[in-house]
Amino acid sequence: MYDIILAFITSFALTYLAIPSIIHVAVKKNLMDEPNERRSHNISTPSLGGIGIFAGTVFSIILWTPFKYFGDLQYILCAFIIIFLVGAKDDIDPISPSKKFLGELFAAGILVFRANVRLTSLYGFFGIYELPEMASIILSIFTIIVIINAFNLIDGINGLSGSLGLLITFVMGIWFFLVGSLEISIVAFALCGALVAFLKYNITPAKIFMGDTGALLLGSVCSILAIKFIELHNEIENSPYTFSSAPSIAIAVLILPLFDTLRVFVLRLVEGKSPFNPDRKHIHHILIDLGLSHMQATGVLFLTNVLFIILAVMLQGVGNLILLAIILGLALIMSFLASSMVEKRKLKAG
User: Fold this and answer.
1) Do 153 and 144 form a contact (C-beta atoms < 8 A)?
2) C-beta separation of 162 from 199 below 8 A
3) For residues 288 and 40, is the Cβ–Cβ distance under 8 A?
4) Interatomic CA distance for residues 207 and 181, integer angstroms
5) Using one digit for the tens of pLDDT, what is the confidence trace for 51-68?
6) Would you kindly state where each structural domain of the chain is located, as residue ranges?
7) Cα distance between residue 221 and residue 58, in whole Å
8) What residues contact residue 146 under an 8 Å CB cut-off, 6+ apart?
9) CA distance 193 to 14
10) What are the DSSP calls for 162-205, one per residue?
11) Which SS3 state, helix, strand or coil, does residue 279 take?
C-alpha cells in the first residue's frame, strides 16, 4: 500500500514541478497549439504537457516498483518510450497519420509479444470463449490501438482527457491493488498522480495541453489496464473482487472515449468522409455548442462516465452481451438527445 501512495505522490510532485518549465520553453520556442475553426480554444497554448506526464509517470514506476514484481514491466516501459517519441515528434513537428500508426503498431506489438498484454478469450461473446493464438494477437493489437486513438481523439477541451484518465486509473488502480497485482496498480497510480498535477495547469484558463504525447501515453496505459483487468479474471475466480461480466465492465469504464470514437467514425463514413477526417462531431463539441463552458462539459462527461461504471457493476449479472447492449444503447440515446438539442438550438438561432 505504501508503494502505491509513494508512486502517486512522486509522480504528482515531479509533474507539478516540471510543467512550469515546459510551459516556459514551449512559449520561448513557439511550440504552441494554434486556434482554428475546429479547435475549442481561442488563444495560442503550449501543447507539451505530455512530456511532464510521461516524466512523472515513468520515473515513479521505476522508483517504486519492487524488483521482485517487475516481471514484464520492463517491456511495458519500452512501449511507453516508443509512444513518447511518436507523440513528442508529432507535437513538435507533426508527422503523417501513417507514420504515427506505425509507431503505435510497434508499441502495441511490444505489449502483446513481450509484455503479454493479450486477450485470450471473448468470454462468451457470440458464443466464443478461448481464442486461437493468431486471433488473440490480432484482437489484442487492434484493441490497444483503438484505445490509444480513442484518447487522442477525445482530447479536445480543457480538463476532459485528464479527468477521464484520472477516473479510469484510480478505479482500475484500486481494483488491481485489491486483487494483489501490485505492479499494475503502481502503473495506474503513477499516471493518476501525474494527471492530478497536470489538471492544475489544464483547467480553464488552460496554461498547457497534454498534446499527443500525453494522450497517446494515457491511451496506452488504459489499454493495458483494460486488457489486464479482463484477463486477470481467469486467475481470480474465487476472489470477492471478481465481476461476472468483466469485458463489458471494462468497456463501461472506458465508455466515453470508446463510444465517442465509434460514433464519430460511423458518422464520418455515413457522410462519405474518411473516419480520420477532423471535424466538430465529438460529444464534447456537442456540449460546447449547447452553450456549456469547457469545465461544465468536462464535468458532465466525467459524471456520465461515473454513472456508466456504477450501472455496469449493478447489472453485471445479466451477462456480457446484454450488458454491453444496455451500455451502448444508453450511450446512443444520450448522444442522440444531445445532438437533437444542438439542432433545435441552431434552428432557433437561424
Assistant:
1) no
2) yes
3) yes
4) 36
5) 999 999 999 999 999 877
6) 2-349
7) 11
8) 258, 261
9) 9
10) HHHHHHHHHHHHHHHHHTT-HHHHHHHHHHHHHHHHHHHHHSSS
11) coil
Percentage above 90 pLDDT, the chain = 75
Q: Residue 36's pLDDT is what?
A: 60
The residue-averaged pLDDT of 294-298 equals: 94
User: 195 with 162: CB under 8 angstroms?
Assistant: yes
Indicate the pLDDT class of residue 281, thresholds 50, 70 and 90. Answer: confident
State the distance between the two ends of the chain, measured CA to CA, in whole angstroms: 58
Distance separating alpha carbons of residues 122 and 130, to the nearest angstrom:
7
pLDDT at 239 (0 to 100): 84
In the structure, what pLDDT confidence band is assigned to residue 279 with cuts at 50, 70 and 90?
Answer: confident
Residue recorded with cell 468522409: 273
For residue 45, the surrounding DSSP H or E stretch is: strand 45-46
- For residue 236, what pLDDT is reported? 84
40: exposed, middle or buried (Cβ count in 10 Å: 0-12, 13-18, 19+)? middle
